């Protein structure tokens, strides 16, 4: 599997996948038009794994994840629309490759544009590339511990539900990120410029603004007499290395 370094993810806006097509990096404008929920749903097919499904172990050895997309009973809801996994995958690939995607049922494959193709042999590579350029990971499945009683299980599930809610509250809000990049630097960045940034470029700019700001706050505290041993005075240039 090809690994894409940070230079590629930040300074490029697309990568070419052999025999598939050109994978475009989502922009701020793409994200705003889709909305966070639909954008995350478009990433869902690539975050799946066979371990998430209740499949007989012997049968699982013969399957690839791509095969499951051709199971018509697997569905997902986007807003008011109910889609099969295959319909979601097709729509998602059209978003990422900016090409028409056609399902070829007779060969259990997908045609990307005029000549690209995705099947059970290269889907995992395509999924890995999309996860890399969007800085996402496979969904992690944590097995439930053994419980001594139903009460212990109920307590555990409630605790995990609370942690999940807290985690959602702590997630980075994209509107805040966009606003910080536009207004938080030393000079104003026009809205139209930010709209054309890839999400990787936006997040890189956001991180740089926060690191630079944090350095000068700490530096001024040290000048004012604060204990420099308790303040991080690592220069911002070292913090934003790519």
What would you note in describing this structure?
- The protein is mostly helical.
- The chain has 2 domains: 6-133, no CATH class; 174-239, no CATH class.
- Helices cover 51% and strands 11% of the residues.
- The protein has 12 helices and 7 strands.
- The chain has helices spanning 6-11, 28-34, 36-47, 57-60, 65-68, 85-97, 123-133, 150-170, 174-183, 191-196, 199-223, 236-239, and strands at residues 14-17, 21-24, 75-78, 81-84, 101-104, 109-112, 116-118.
- A 3-stranded antiparallel β-sheet has the order 5-6-7, covered by helices on one side.
- The longest helix has 25 residues, at 199-223.
- It is globular and about 70 Å long.
- The mean pLDDT is 87.
Task: Map the helices and strands.
Blueprint: H1 6-11, E1 14-17, E2 21-24, H2 28-34, H3 36-47, H4 57-60, H5 65-68, E3 75-78, E4 81-84, H6 85-97, E5 101-104, E6 109-112, E7 116-118, H7 123-133, H8 150-170, H9 174-183, H10 191-196, H11 199-223, H12 236-239
Antiparallel strand pairs: 1-2, 3-4, 5-6, 6-7
């Amino acid at each position: 599997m090809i690994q894409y370094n940070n230079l590629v993810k930040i300074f490029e806006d697309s990568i070419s996948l052999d025999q598939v097509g050109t994978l475009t990096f989502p922009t701020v404008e793409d994200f705003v038009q889709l909305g966070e929920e639909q954008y995350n749903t478009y990433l869902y097919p690539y975050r799946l794994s066979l371990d998430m499904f209740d499949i007989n172990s012997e049968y699982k050895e013969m399957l690839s994840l791509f095969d499951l997309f051709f199971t018509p009973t697997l569905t997902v809801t986007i807003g008011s629309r109910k889609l099969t996994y295959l319909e979601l995958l097709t729509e998602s690939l059209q978003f990422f490759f900016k090409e028409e995607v056609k399902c070829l049922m007779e060969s259990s494959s997908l045609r990307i544009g005029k000549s690209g193709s995705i099947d059970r042999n290269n889907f995992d590579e395509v999924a890995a590339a999309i996860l890399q350029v969007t800085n996402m990971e496979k969904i992690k499945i944590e097995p439930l511990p053994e419980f001594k009683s139903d009460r212990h299980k109920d307590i555990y599930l409630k605790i995990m539900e609370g942690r999940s809610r807290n985690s959602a509250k702590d997630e980075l809000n994209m509107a805040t990120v966009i606003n910080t990049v536009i207004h938080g630097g030393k000079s104003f960045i026009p809205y139209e410029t930010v709209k054309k940034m890839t999400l990787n470029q936006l997040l890189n700019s956001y991180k740089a603004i926060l690191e630079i700001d944090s350095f000068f706050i700490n530096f001024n505290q040290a000048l004012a007499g604060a204990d420099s041993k308790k303040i991080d005075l690592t220069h911002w240039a070292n913090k934003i290395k790519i």
